[in-house]
Amino acid sequence: xxxxxxxxxxxxxxxxxxxxxxxxxxxxxxxxxxxxxxxxxxxxxxxxxxxxxxxxxxxxxxxxxxxxxxxxxxxxxxxxxxxxxxxxxxxxxxxxxxxxxxxxxxxxxxxxxxxx
Length: 116
Prior knowledge:
Blueprint: H1 5-12, E1 19-21, H2 22-31, H3 38-46, E2 52-54, H4 55-58, H5 60-76, H6 96-105
């Protein structure tokens, strides 16, 4: 997956459920083209005994930064979802400069580029 950990997670969890079971994770990594052992990745990220995996395990720092953005948008704007709302659908895309402006306005943790 080209980009960053947040984009990679988005590819694994396209419905934004927030966490995946081992079976869902295995299916998702195959769907994005990974041909290796999903169990090896799972165990490296969160250990064999875990029942769920989330962005927190994939990239803890990016997870904290995303939470910072979400909270900042809720506190200082109409919420994160409102930024992507287009006629009742969450389909609006932002240019990088506009996204970075929102990050600054939301007082999101830096570096902002990491979330784009």
